[in-house]
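Following up on my earlier thread - several people asked me to post the actual chain instead of describing it. Fair enough. Here it is, all 149 residues.
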Amino acid sequence: MRLSTFAFAALLALPFAAAAQTAPAYDAELAKSLGADERGMRQYVLVILKTGPNKMADGEARKAMFAGHFANMGKLAGEKKLVLAGPLDGKEGRRGIFVFNTPDIETAQTWVATDPVIINGEMVAEYHKFYGSAALMMVNEVHGKIEKK
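Reply from S.P.:
Thanks for posting it. Predicted structure:
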């Protein structure tokens, strides 16, 4: 017996309909704790780190500067100021990004000013207001659970 096209299409759609019904329910408490608006979004500051005017020569001082850079990122992340960070491909001098837990560029500037790569002029920072998912606030917590130490 052949299935009609309609019946066949209905059978194919069942898994998708079931998946739609099992979508997680809205969690008002979680949304509030992450600072989410009605869209589940919030304001951040995005910082693009670019090559600066003072490239430090390879050696112990450069290693120490980058060790300080990573330690500073860890400190800011631990204080829940730094939400996300990572390197870029270096195109057009763009070397990395920070996403900060503030809508205020001036506040982000004070946090970036503590970084040894900025202090030494190895990199300079470009600041942008960024509107993104409030779930980014959970990145550091989740990352800690998946990072092999």
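The radius of gyration is 22 Å. That should answer part of your original question.
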